[in-house]
Specification:
The protein has two helices and 16 strands. With 238 residues, the protein is α+β, with helices and mostly antiparallel strands. The protein has three domains: 48 residues; 81 residues, Immunoglobulins (Immunoglobulin-like, Sandwich), CATH 2.60.40; 81 residues, Immunoglobulins (Immunoglobulin-like). The strands form four sheets. Strands 2-8-7-4-5 form a five-stranded mixed β-sheet, with no helix packed on it. Strands 10-16-15-12-13 form a five-stranded mixed β-sheet, with no helix packed on it. A three-stranded antiparallel β-sheet has the order 1-3-6, with no helix packed on it. It is elongated, with a radius of gyration of 43 Å. The chain starts with a helix and ends with a strand.
């Protein structure tokens, strides 16, 4: 056999081995594509290409504002000159409270709670609202305006009739009606029984008298919790 025949035989064997390897690799690729799908392979390829083509760090771009702070329940009226404003918001955010036009800030704790302590109230109506700013700098919408009225003055109270110490005689005078007036919106009790008060603050209460002295304790309590008390004694004889 000639030298060229031997070289030709080696080349044929080499080409055969390459063909076998190509066929095996093709089968493997087909199996992979059939298992994970072409889109997945494409995504992986794109991800790897992106990593090769970029040396920049992956950064967060949070542009979503936090929810407005939620304020805890507070009274509409109070006779205490200081109050606390508490509530909840996104942990780590900064809550800005605007109270009667004056601003102050506090950081929300890890549990989402915050509190402004010992805020001094002005006489009459006080208004406040709050916003939250998250750690990225996004600002929430402002809460609706809240109002609380500070009033530490006791309500007016008068007993217009009958007069203190009045005397009543006989069965026709046994029933008596106590009439009086107080501040509009106040609650009145007479001997701890609730009495209806109209929009102008006037009230009346009818009671059957017992023989001898009859004492009536009249109490008015306004929405802020201030109170005024008066007492009258009426005498009845058979």
């Amino acid at each position: 056999m000639s030298k060229y025949s031997r070289l030709e035989s080696v080349e044929v064997k080499k080409n055969f081995r390459m063909a076998v390897i190509f066929i095996v690799l093709t089968v493997v690729v087909v199996i992979i594509l059939g298992t994970v799908g072409i889109p997945t392979v494409g995504k992986v390829t794109s991800f790897i290409s992106g990593l090769r083509g970029s040396n920049s760090a992956i950064t967060s771009n949070d542009k979503t504002p936090p929810a407005p702070p939620t304020l805890a329940t507070f009274p509409d009226f109070t006779n205490q000159q200081t109050m606390n404003v508490a509530g909840s918001a996104e942990p780590g955010a900064t809550v800005k409270l605007t109270f009667n036009g004056v601003e102050q800030e506090v950081v929300v704790d890890k549990d989402g709670n915050f509190a402004f302590q010992n805020i001094k109230l002005l006489d009459g109506e006080n208004s406040f609202s709050a916003i939250a700013t998250d750690q990225t700098g996004n600002i929430s919408q402002r809460t609706t305006d809240k109002k609380v009225t500070y009033d530490n003055k006791p309500p007016a109270l008068s007993i217009d009739s009958p007069a203190e110490g009045s005397k009543f005689f006989g069965s026709s005078q046994r029933q008596v009606t106590i009439q009086g007036a107080t501040d509009s919106g106040a609650n009145v009790t007479i001997n701890e029984r609730i009495v209806s008060v109209d929009d102008s603050g006037k009230f009346q209460y009818t009671q059957t008298l017992s023989s001898g002295d009859n004492k009536f304790a009249v109490k008015s309590v306004d929405p802020a919790g201030n109170s005024t008390e008066k007492e009258i004694t009426l005498n009845f004889s058979e």
